[in-house]
Design brief:
It contains 29 helices and 18 strands. It is an alpha/beta fold. InterPro entries: AB_hydrolase_fold, CarbesteraseB, Type-B_Carboxylest/Lipase.
């Protein structure tokens, strides 16, 4: 920067007129003396006569020289004052700019002594931009104001589970003193990394193992008014994918402000890194967990909430957990654990599962046979040094990551029960939830339980479902359900009939009938059974609803466009994010969002004793149909009775193993979907089974299905399968088919 300085005239005067200027200065000085109250004695006015001209001239000359010298001093003093004033202004302006710069772009110091925390509120706002510091059990976290609520993103609650901490219980940061000392102040302005996962939609690996963070949204930081209700979000994703800040399906600042509640969400370890049951990973029997690492993460985060949420304006005694599918399953597991007692007082379960009763020993035996073999490791040290991507790849084998979700949203095949990720580990989970809930030593909690009428419509099994005709629908249902008996498929087609479809009724498409049927089997009816079990053993209220409200226009949630009452629609409405998924939303969509928010608000703020509707009685006396206008009735009573009598109600959503090899592990099962969905991996499945089991499996299938399945395998795999089980194959196919196939192979 260049500064232009204009000098005063006194410093630019030319020498020839200096004598004239001296006279003028003398006159000016005389006037100045008079103006300050001085007499003019001793000062001879210009032109006055004296008795001695020489003396007069000499005296006058001395006076002029003296006056000139005095005048020069006065002028220099004035100039110096002007210079100092200008310099002072520049310095002050520079300081102001520095303060503004540091306030806006400063780095938070590691020394928190400057915070001068208020011991009553635990917070101190120190910036004009709404940034605040809150004291926790592990130093301070710095958040900011967004949409009239305080937001703290990516707050670490446990040490990174990497290296030697992989497949171990989380280490709480308030226990890890060294970490807290090093990170006494955390900036909480950005969401942390999601836990490492394979995205089933993009088929890409994403996230990091350093992911154990949580987020807080609060409308106030005042702790002197008793504290607000706290809602803790446990995200879903089939225990395979997801995070606590999924856009549109997670808490936000506007919701916290509108509901006047504190919201918390968390990340927890997923899939192989979060739920691998393998005995060799439990080096120390006293301290190591036997699987369920993701559940231990959730427990650790809830302990953080209990210890710290008061400083964020919440009441640790008023915590409600809520989550969908796998999140709801996790909450149910925590409900049955003595270690989670006292950490929450109520729960909202959206599309929960009801089955996880396998023991650690049963599941670890399976993982030894497949996962360990594919990993190339024989000891825990090798596994803990392996790349996260290689770990998941070893668990999946050649299988498609999306298979697990698609198969859960399809009609079941008799005998196919996925292996479980959540196991009875003897510590966190000592017995199945339905057994534990009847234990009087466990405190029961109020529950709000929901399901959706067309739950699977967010991503159903068949790709071409929207274009189905009645005949295609009939053929698919018959082929899938025939494994349960011909009468089952015929009755199903009568109950979920195509009369309206054949009459071209737009409200009853093949997609509508199919998604309703699958949703009844997979979610609605099993959730009814679960709710009845809970209401019998619980000493607290259980409220039940089925979502029947449809979006005003189709919604593309993941890779599919949903048209009906799909799973998560009630949560999207609750979070106030309908506009994110439905830009062309209608007023009825907003009305529905208000209904859901009012329902949940009443449930949470009443401690689970009410949902704000006097007609809504505890289940099983009443079940609500959740829509803009809530009605009551026995939703799908006839349908659920049929599925229960047909023994299909046990095929509920199971958020367990993703590998098709798990699906095909059992004896005497129909492998039709194995052939059509993941035939490349059938060889891995078959070769692990005893010959007798393979024969039992194969003989339940129509010959054409097995033959088509084998035909899609690589030649080498087919040959290995055939020659490994010659007796079974010969018996099944007959000598002519075997001879033909072997002849084809011999020519390669």
């Amino acid at each position: 920067m260049v500064f232009m300085i204009k000098l005063p005239p006194a410093l630019t005067m030319s020498p020839p007129i200096e004598n004239q200027r001296k006279d003028d200065r003398l006159s000016l000085l005389t006037n100045l003396h008079r103006s300050y109250g001085q007499t003019d004695s001793g000062i001879t006015p210009y032109g006055q006569e004296s008795s001695s001209v020489q003396q007069q001239f000499s005296h006058q000359q001395q006076m002029r020289n003296s006056s000139f010298s005095h005048l020069e001093s006065e002028k220099m003093f004035c100039l110096r004052q002007q210079f100092l004033t200008a310099a002072g202004i520049i310095v002050v302006a520079s300081l102001v700019l520095c303060v503004l710069f540091l306030t806006t772009f400063r780095k938070v110091p590691t020394d928190d002594s400057y915070l001068n925390m208020d011991t009553m509120s635990g917070t101190q706002e120190f910036s004009t931009h709404g940034q605040v510091a809150v004291k926790t059990s592990c130093g301070h976290v710095i958040g900011k104001l967004e949409d009239e609520a305080y937001v703290f993103k990516g707050v670490a609650y446990a040490a990174p589970p990497i290296g030697p901490l992989r497949w171990r219980k989380p280490v709480p940061l308030w226990v890890e003193g060294a970490w807290c000392e090093e990170h006494r102040t955390q900036e909480a302005f950005e969401f942390g990394s999601e836990c490492f996962q394979l995205n089933p939609y993009t088929k890409q690996y994403q996230g990091s193992e350093d992911c154990l963070v949580l987020n807080v949204w609060t409308p106030t930081l005042d702790t002197q008014k008793g504290g607000l209700e706290v809602m803790v979000w446990v995200h879903g994703g089939f225990l395979q994918f997801g995070n606590g800040n999924e856009p549109g399906i997670s808490p936000n600042a506007k919701l916290a402000k509108k509901m006047n509640m504190v919201f918390v969400s968390m990340n927890y370890r997923l899939y192989t890194l979060g739920f691998m049951a393998l005995d060799l990973l439990s080096d120390n029997i006293l301290t190591d967990s036997k699987g369920n690492y993701g559940l231990w993460d959730q427990l650790c985060a809830l302990q953080w909430v209990k210890d710290n949420i008061k400083n964020f304006g919440g009441d640790p005694r008023k915590v409600t957990l809520f989550g969908p599918d796998a999140g709801a399953a996790s909450i149910m597991a925590l409900m049955s654990s003595p270690k989670a007692q006292g950490l929450f007082r109520s729960a909202w379960l959206v599309g929960p599962t009801m089955v996880f009763n396998r023991t650690f020993g049963e599941v670890t035996a399976h993982n030894k046979g497949l996962f360990l073999q594919r990993s190339g490791c024989k000891e825990a040290r090798c596994l803990r040094k392996s790349m996260a991507q290689d770990i998941i790849a070893a668990h999946l084998g050649k299988d498609d990551a999306s298979f697990r979700i698609r198969d859960q949203n399809d009609l079941p095949i008799q005998g196919i029960f996925p292996e479980q990720l959540i196991v009875m580990d003897g510590e966190l989970l000592q017995e199945p939830p339905t057994t534990a809930w009847s234990n009087k030593d466990l405190k029961s909690i109020p529950l709000l339980i929901g399901s959706a009428a067309q739950a699977v419509d967010f991503w159903p099994g068949p790709d071409d479902l929207p274009t189905w005709t009645w005949n295609q629908y009939k053929k698919y249902v018959t082929t899938s359900l025939d494994s349960f008996g011909l009468q089952v498929s015929q009755m199903a087609l009568r109950i979920y009939n195509g009369t309206a479809l054949q009459a071209n009724d737009s409200n009853f498409t093949a997609e509508y009938l199919y998604t309703t049927m699958v949703s009844d089997i997979r979610q609605s009816c099993p959730v009814n059974t679960l709710s009845k079990q809970l209401s019998k053993v619980s000493r607290s209220p259980v409220f039940r609803y089925t979502l029947t409200e449809r979006p005003s226009n189709p919604v593309k949630l993941f890779n599919y466009t949903a048209k009906y009452s799909f799973h998560l629609w009630d949560l999207i409405a609750f979070f106030g994010n309908i506009g994110k998924f439905l830009p062309n939303s209608e007023p009825e969509d907003t009305e529905f969002a208000d209904v859901v928010q009012n329902m949940v608000s009443n449930f949470v703020k009443s401690g689970g004793e009410s949902v704000g509707n006097s007609d809504w009685m505890r289940f099983p006396k009443k079940m609500a149909n959740l829509a803009r206008n809530i009605t009551f009735g026995n939703f799908n009573k006839t349908e659920c009775k049929f599925w229960s009598e047909s023994k299909l109600d046990v095929y509920a959503w199971l958020f367990m193993c993703l590998s098709p090899s798990c699906v095909c592990w059992h004896r005497r099962i129909c492998l039709w979907r194995c052939w059509t969905r993941f035939s490349a991996n059938v060889y891995d499945v078959l070769r692990t089974l005893p010959t007798a089991n393979v024969y039992d499996v194969l003989r339940t299938l129509p010959t054409a299905n097995v033959y088509d399945g084998l035909r899609t395998l690589t030649t080498a795999n087919v040959y290995d399968v055939l020659r490994t089980f010659p007796t079974a194959m010969m018996t099944f196919f007959g000598p002519e088919v075997m001879e033909t196939e072997l002849l084809k192979l011999s020519t390669i």
